[in-house]
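Please predict the structure of the following assembly.
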Amino acid sequence: MDMFAVWYFIESTINGALIGLMYALVALGFVLIYKSTDAINFAQGQFVMISGMFVAAMAGDYGLSIWLAIPLALVLMILFNIVLERVVLRPMIGRPVVAIIMATIGLAAFLEGIFPMIFGSATRSLDLGIPNTPIEIFGGNVFLTPINVVGGAVAVAFFSVFTWFFMKSRKGVALRAVADNHQVSMAMGINVERYFVLAWSMAGVVAVLGGLLWGSAIGVDNSLAVVGLKVFPVVILGGLESIVGCIVGGIIVGVIEAWGGTYLDPAMTQPWFREFFPFEGGGTKDFLPYLLMIVVLFFRPYGLFGKVIIERV
Amino acid sequence: MFHRESGYYKTSYEADSALYPLPIARWTIVGLVVLFYVVAPLAVPDYYLTILNLVGIAIVGALGLNILLGLTGQISIGHAAFMSVGAYTAANLATRFDLPFWITLPAGGLMAAAIGVVVGFPSVRIKGLYLAISTLAAQFIIDWFIIHTPAISGGFQSSIQVPRPSVFGVVLDTQRELYLFILVAATIAIIMALNLARSRIGRAFIAIRDQDIAAEIIGINVRRYKLIAFAISSFFAGVTGVLYTYYSGVANNEFFPLTVSIDYLAMVIIGGMGSVLGAIFGAAFVILLPIGIDLSLSSIGPYIFENQGVLSSVKSHMRLILFGGLIMFFLVVEPDGLNRLWLNIRNYFRIWPFSY
C-alpha cells in the first residue's frame, strides 16, 4: 500500500469524524429532551431547519446583520419550544410512546409546511464568514473542509460546556435528578415543570447552533431537515440516556458515512464487486448508518452506552 | 327493525362478539353494499371515481397498519417500504411470467409479509422508540436495495410498466372497471380485519398491546404473536402496493417514500387507533384532505391573494400545515379520533329525542 492511500484514508476518516461531531450536536437536542422529559422528538431536524431558515431569511431578505439574526433566532426558538412544551407535549405526559412519536411527526410536517410558506422555499446560502479554501494538515497531505473543522470545534466546545453544566452546576444536577425520576425530584423540592422548560430551551439553543453549522455546510431549504433523520442512528448507537454516547455515536455514524462514500461507492462500480452483489449506483451513505444500527440493536438492544431497563409488572 | 338497543342486554359471549349485534347493522351493511356496488359505479363521474379508488387502496393499507399499531401496539414507520416490496414483487411476476392478478396480488402480499417478519424481528427484544427507529431504518434499507438492484427495480428510473389486470378476459383499464376491482379487494380486506379482531389471534394482539408481560403470563406467546402481527400488517401493505401498481399501471419506488409511511400512520391516528371503522374514516380523510384544500383554495384563494404565485405556494404548503396540525390536534384533544366523534353522534341519537 502506498502512502497516498494511507493519507486518503486519514483524510476521509477525519472529515467523517468532524461531520459526525456535527451530527452529535443535533442529536444532543434530542437526547436532552428525552433524558429530562421522556418526550421523543422526531422534529429535531425540523427545529434545525427552521432556525437555519430564520437566520438565512433575516440576513438575506431583510438585510439584518447575521450577528443580530442569530440572537433573534435563539430567542425565537426558545420561546417556540416553551410554547410547544406547554401546548402539545405537556397534555401528552403519560400517554403511550406511539402517541408522542406521532405528535412530533405531526409537528415536523407542520413546520415543514409553515416556514417555507412564510419565508419561501428557495434554497438560501448561510454565510458565517468561514473561508472555502481547504485546510491542509500533515504537510499538505490531508485536506479538511473548513466548515467541518469549525463545526467539529463548536461541537466539542459545546459538549465540554454541557458536561460541566450537567456535572457541576446546581441546575445541571437538578436536571439530572429530574431525568432520573420525576416523583423523587419533586419530593426533593425541585420544580419539575420548570426544569422541563429549561430542557426544552436548551434544545432550542442546540437547534440554532445546528441550524447555523449545517445551514452553512449544505445550504438552507426544506432538505436541511434530513439531517434530523441521521439523529436516530446516532442516538441508538450511543444509547439514549448518555451524552458521551451521543458523541461516540455521532463520530461512528460520520466515519461510516465517509468510508461508504470513499470506498464502497466506487467499489460498487467495479466488475469484481458486481459479480457478487448486483447493485447499481452509489448512495450507500444514506443507509449504512441504519444498517449498522440494526446490527447493534440485535446484540445490544440498549445501545453502546444506554441504560439497561428491567421491566416489572 | 330500525331501532337501536336502549341498554346493554347481551347475555352470552357469542352475542358480544357477533358481527351484526342488531338488525339495523345488517340493514346498514346491505345499504352500503348497494350504494358502493350498484349506485356508485353507475352514477358517480369519472373524476370522483379516481378519488374513490385512491381511498379504497388507502383503506387496505390503513387496515393493515391498524392491526399492527392499533391492535398490537407496535409502531412501524416503514409501512410504505412493504408496499414497495409488494408492488415490485407483483410487477416482476406479472411482466416476467405473465401471471394474472389473482396470483400476483397474494404473492405481493406474501413477499411483503416475509420481509415484514424479518423487519419485525427486533420487536421481539425492543419496543417503543427503539422499535420505531428500527422500522424507520427498514424503510431506508429496503428503499435502497430496491432502487439499487436492477434485477428487482427494472433498471432505468426503477420503474416497471405492468399490464392492466384482466378478469374473465375483460381487461380492466377504465376507472369504472378498476373501481370495482379495488372495491372487491377493499371489501375482502375489511371483512378480514373485522374478523381478525374478534378471533383468538386478535384478542392475543390486544392483550399484548395492553400489557405485554401480563399477556405472556396468561399464556400468550408474545414473540410469536408480535411476528404474526408484523406479517399480517405487511401482507395488507403488500396488497396495497400491488393494488396501487395495477391502478397506476407502473411499479415505481417514488410512490412509496417515507412520507407515505407517515400518511398511513396519520390515517390510523386520525381515524382512531384500534378500530376498523376508524381506519376507513382515517384513510378517506387523509386522501380527501389535499383535494379539499385544493378545491377550497382554488375557489376562495383568488379573493385573498392577489399574486398567483403566492396562491400556489400557499396551496402546496397548506397541505403539510393542516396535516401536521390535525395530527397534533387529534392526539392532544381527541386521542380516539374520528371514530370517537362518530360514536358520540351515534350515542346521541340512540336516545334522541329523550336525551335524559
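The mean pLDDT of chain B is 84. Chain B touches chain A through 52 residues (CB under 8 Å).
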